[in-house]
Design brief:
This protein has 2 domains: 203 residues, UDP-n-acetylglucosamine1-carboxyvinyl-transferase, Chain (Alpha-beta prism), CATH 3.65.10; 210 residues, Alpha-beta prism (UDP-n-acetylglucosamine1-carboxyvinyl-transferase, Chain). Helices cover 28% and strands 24% of the residues. Strand 22, helix 12 and strand 23 form a beta-alpha-beta unit. Helix 8 runs parallel beside helix 10, helix 10 packs parallel to helix 12 and helix 12 crosses helix 13. The chain is globular and about 70 Å long. Bound molecules: ligand EPZ.
């Protein structure tokens, strides 16, 4: 790498600070059928943590199939602020963490991207010290990090929280984390990933019991192993990591995004369209595919990691409860609810992973859905049709849910909160339009706005 630093400049539509008044919106005219094939990108929730994992390595790593998303741009900014050099090269990013010159992640960046908290484990493992702002809550819940902190303390780190900053440091001559036996009260994806990364360079063996089994956790483990880490049990509830002294460069490709893939499966189902979705690993979507089949949709695996969606004559009700993997994924809860609003019969949908991830219910009701809430369970009675309406997305997956509901609704919908969708979907509107949807991104001045790849990311090479 020529060692040219990269400055990531978030564009004017950089979202979180701006009020909705000057944010682009989506305009959808429903009832168009979709056709053709869509290819999903690399998994956001693997790319973000793998980028943080590259901090463990004092040599250049190359990460491929990295989606062009606002959150990826923000993670790049956080890493740059720590002294990491990044270079985007098409769908790959070269990351060189040889010269980390900062142990504190900047508050203003971490507050925009919760996933920035993932740097705490690698910084501790590399530098023996880390100061990372608490990521704070978001629309879907309080998002505490107590399990991360408890695990790092078990590995010998001194951790205290002061003015919203998590201060973690190691004492002792070698200032090195120690292997430990850790039990997670909840199979937290993030805590599993933080502790796995920290353990790769610890002195001794670390066991993580009740670990998360998500495909993105396995992807991170495979990336760390490509760098020379010794990790066993990835994808099971018990991880065993034997610490090594140093990791080496790796060239690694991120798995496809199962949530983006699932979103397109649902877009096909709700518009009753036959569609092919490419770059999908069906085993990563077992629960979602099983539930789609229950609603009467045929999912036919084809060659080259492609599946064909063939909807039945009518969508049928089914019950869903979100659970840690391999259970039904919480990230698919909102988009699937959109389908259930038009599914004949009564469906019960219970969100058990996050305490506040049902904001889209009110918006779907505005579109004519028949949903009653009982605690964290939605009782959904299928209706004959939805009506287009002005609706507002409050989080990433709620935004996707409203977009696909609008595809099936009669008439026009406008969807505010596009900044949430852009965080996790690379040009969702463009991909849907290419499949035949009547969907436009409208800028605040009412002009139809082209959607370049990751509108908020302009990478300037210095
Ligand atoms: C990851 O979040 C994903 N984000 C989320 O995707 C996903 O919904 C979630 O895993 C569950 O699959 C990324 O990977 C960047 P958790 P994470 O720790 O790690 C509680 C999206 O839409 N908990 O498994 O934060 C927590 O409050 C995003 O792409 C603690 O109590 O999820 C929650 O109720 C949204 N203490 C539950 O565990 C902790 O220390 C699951 O959280 C950590 C978590």
């Amino acid at each position: 790498m020529e060692g040219r630093p990269i400055t990531l400049t978030l564009g004017s539509s950089n979202s979180s600070a701006a009020s909705d008044g000057n944010q682009p919106i989506l305009k959808v005219v429903g009832r168009s059928s979709l056709q053709g094939q869509v290819t999903v990108g690399g998994a956001k929730n693997a790319a973000l943590v793998v980028m943080a994992g590259a901090l463990l390595c004092p040599e250049e790593c190359r990460i491929r199939n990295v989606p062009s998303l606002v959150d990826v741009a923000r993670m790049g900014q956080v890493l740059s602020a720590l002294g990491v050099k990044l270079e985007r090269d098409g769908d790959a990013i070269a990351i060189n963490a040889r010269d980390i010159n900062q142990s504190q992640a900047p508050y203003e960046l971490v507050s925009q991207l919760r996933a920035s908290f993932f740097v705490i484990g690698p910084l501790l493992a590399r530098l023996g010290i880390a100061k990372v702002p608490l990521p704070g809550g978001c629309a879907i819940g309080a998002r505490p990090v107590d399990l991360h902190v408890q695990g790092l303390r078990a590995m010998g780190a001194h951790v205290h929280i002061d003015h919203g900053i998590v201060h973690a440091y190691l004492t002792g001559s070698d200032r090195r984390l120690k292997g430990a036996k850790i039990y997670l009260d909840y199979p937290s994806v993030g805590a599993t990933e933080t502790l796995m990364m920290a353990a790769t360079l610890a002195d001794g063996e670390t066991i993580i019991d009740n670990a998360a089994q998500e495909p993105e956790v396995v992807d991170l483990a495979n990336f760390c192993r490509a760098m020379g880490a010794k990790i066993k049990g990835a994808g099971t509830k018990k991880l065993v990591i034997s610490g090594v002294d140093r990791l080496h460069s790796a060239d690694y490709s991120i798995i496809p995004d199962r949530i983006e893939a699932g979103t397109f499966l649902l877009a096909a189902a709700i518009t009753r369209s036959e569609l092919s979705v490419a770059s999908i690993i069906p085993d990563h979507l077992t629960a979602v595919i099983a539930k789609l089949r229950k609603t009467g949709v045929k999912i036919v695996p084809e060659e080259n990691n492609t599946v064909r969606v063939i909807p039945g004559p009518q969508s049928l009700a089914t019950d869903i409860e979100t659970l840690p993997y391999p259970g039904f994924p919480t990230d698919m809860q909102a988009p699937f609810m959109s389908l259930l609003t038009l599914s004949e019969g009564n469906s019960l949908l219970t969100e058990t992973v996050f305490e506040n991830r049902l904001h889209h219910v009110a918006e779907l009701i505005r579109m004519g859905a028949d949903i009653r809430m009982k605690g964290n369970t939605a009782v959904i009675r299928g209706v004959a049709f939805l009506s287009g309406a002005p609706v507002k997305a409050t989080d990433l997956r709620a935004g996707a849910a409203l977009a696909i509901a609008a595809l099936a609704a009669e008439g026009e919908s406008t969807i505010e909160g596009l900044q949430h969708i852009d965080r996790g979907y690379d040009r969702l509107d463009v991909k849907l339009k290419q499949l035949g949807a009547n969907i436009e991104r409208i800028d605040p001045q009412g002009e139809t706005e082209p959607t370049p790849a990751c509108k908020d990311e302009s990478i300037l090479l210095k």
